[in-house]
Automatic annotation (TrEMBL):
Keywords tagged on the record: DNA-binding, Transcription, Transcription regulation
Lineage: Bacteria, Pseudomonadati, Pseudomonadota, Alphaproteobacteria, Sphingomonadales
Cross-referenced CDD domains: WHTH_GntR
Organism: Sphingomonas jatrophae
Signal sequence segment: none
SUPFAM superfamilies named in the record: GntR ligand-binding domain-like, Winged helix' DNA-binding domain
Name of the protein in question: Transcriptional regulator, GntR family
Pfam families for this protein: FCD (PF07729), GntR (PF00392)
């Protein structure tokens, strides 16, 4: 007869974690909106039947997660921050920066992932009223700004943001969108400087980039997922997204998202 297995000691969640979990659920479920105040400490003490230190610790947990900001002083309180894609991009940027990841690595990741977003967009049955009007407006605005490098570069990046944000898959929009935000922040900091416009200073290059975006648009319009994927991949491999005027061997800087 085999010996009985030793009992596993289950870790009991701390009281503060239980309180934080309840408040977190209210934020994530929409019961509390962005900018709302959490209930006052006295109300929470009564609701949960815990001590003041437990409430303070719960607030600390939520503040560390970026879900609230505690206002100290006579007024006091805690302001709610609903998570958004910018938060995800910044946290991802911090991790990538801590690992010394280069801009070249970032753009290679986008080259791999964004074609899937283009394919999703091409397969949207409602693409004619969702993603296509936004891409069309962007391309038209880009052509109108063809002689203004700074404006054109911003619009060229916005094309990719619109594509990813409206591809129709929320998970991909968030994950790939975080990479897009990081890359766009680097472009805003570096390529928008007139001294480093690089080949974007050449009108012919800007026109070629606009034509590449038009090719992507047409593939999505026709519902051709494979062509849309191929057009984006070629755009990143040897096309417009490789034509910039700054050094991509440098490390990603998360703070560019807050510049």
């Amino acid at each position: 007869m085999s010996a009985p297995l030793p009992k596993r000691r289950l870790r009991q969640p701390r009281v503060a974690e239980i309180v934080a979990s309840s408040l977190r659920s209210r934020i994530l479920s929409g019961q509390l909106g962005d900018g709302d105040l959490l209930p006052k400490q006295e109300e929470l003490l009564s609701e949960f039947g815990v001590s003041p230190p437990a409430i303070r610790e719960a607030f600390r947990i939520l503040e560390t997660e970026g879900l609230i900001t505690v206002i100290r002083g006579n007024v006091g309180g805690a302001v709610v921050h609903v998570p958004h894609s910018g938060t995800a991009a910044y946290m991802l940027g911090l991790v990538l920066e801590s690992r010394g990841v280069s801009l070249a690595d970032l753009i290679d990741g986008m080259r791999t992932l964004e074609p899937a977003c283009a394919a999703e967009a091409a397969q949207r049955p409602d693409r004619g009223t969702t993603v296509l009007p936004r891409l069309r407006a962007n391309i038209d605005a880009s052509m109108a700004a063809i002689d203004d490098p700074k404006t054109f570069i911003s619009l060229a990046r916005a094309f990719h943001t619109e594509l990813v944000n409206h591809c129709g898959n929320e998970t991909m929009s968030l994950v790939v969108g975080a990479l897009e935000k990081l890359w766009t922040a680097q472009v805003d900091l570096l390529a928008l400087n007139p001294s480093v416009h690089g080949t974007f200073s050449d009108r012919a290059v800007r026109l070629s980039l606009a034509h590449e975006h038009e090719r992507i648009y047409r593939a999505i319009e026709e519902g051709d997922a494979q062509s849309a994927e191929r057009a984006i991949r070629e755009h990143y491999s040897g096309g417009g997204e490789r034509r910039h005027g700054f050094d991509t061997s440098i490390t990603i800087k998360a703070d560019t998202l807050r510049a």
